[in-house]
Amino acid sequence: MTAQMQDKTVVITGAGSGFGKASALLFARQGAKVIVGDLNLDTAQATADEIRALGASAKALQVDVAQEASVESFFAGAIDTYGRIDCAFNNAGILGPVKEMHEVTLDEYERIMAVNSRGVWLCMRAEIRAMLAQQVPQGGHSIVNTASVAGLVASAMLPAYGASKHAVVGMTRSAARSYGRRGIRINAVCPGPVETPLAGPLFASDKRRDMLLERQALDHFGTPEEVAEMVVWLSSPAASLVTGTPMRVDAGALT
Ligand SMILES: NC(=O)c1ccc[n+]([C@@H]2O[C@H](COP(=O)([O-])OP(=O)(O)OC[C@H]3O[C@@H](n4cnc5c(N)ncnc54)[C@H](O)[C@@H]3O)[C@@H](O)[C@H]2O)c1
Q1: Could you give the CA distance from residue 74 to residue 69 in angstroms, rounded to a whole number?
Q2: Which domains does the chain have, with CATH numbers?
Q3: Mutational test site, ligand 1, from 11, 19, 25, max ligand atoms within 8 Å of CB
Q4: 179 catalytic, yes or no?
Q5: For residue range 131-176, what is the model confidence (pLDDT) as tens digits?
């Protein structure tokens, strides 16, 4: 796969931690130039430093995906840096409180939707505008969005999060249908529980951890690096026939 990502420009959000960071490093190892976006510029810079230590090219830029003006200036900065966007991974997200729907406040609901749903929509819109204005690169353009198994089935204790991730799956499918014939493949990854800072509350007790593990077909939790493998594959020309797909990376939790 190395040659397939060679010199591609990839924009990643939430790249200071977890799936975004693991994907940024894997894209870089496979030859890509990486725009490392995150709300937290310090962690974004740390990821970019790790990439440069591998001998690859990276630029850290701050972005709040929930804010239109921030997203617009982030993409202007990305294009200013590398001249084009070949691939994108819209991954920044938050979990929100673990409680039932009647307990969730409107502010909590709106914050989750703003980051997880509006954020992906704002980033996709900017990416698609940039991609339509460019010549289609060899192998085409690719966008991958981070949804979740919570975007495919019920999450009784994460109702707003589940709604935001169903929205990500829906907008992935709609955009894939619109832009497939113009050289842009658009897919989602739907991970199961992986121990990252975001998922801390899900792993907070042995009881919760055992319950999550019990639901899976495989006997271990995934890692950010395993999710990154799927993200990079979906972004590569090896996935040339795959678009509009919410791809489960869930250790068989939904089998
Ligand atoms: N970890 C899991 O179990 C799991 C499972 C399924 C889906 N996901 C999804 O994966 C994605 C990545 O999560 P992770 O587990 O790697 O978590 P993480 O906490 O390791 O990383 C999330 C990153 O997103 C950044 N971020 C948060 N709000 C932002 C904003 N408004 N603008 C820009 N950046 C912002 C954070 O600073 C952080 O670096 C999220 O969309 C999450 O919903 C996670």
Answers
A1: 9
A2: 2-248 (3.40.50.720)
A3: 19
A4: no
A5: 999 999 989 999 999 999 999 999 999 999 999 999 999 999 999 9
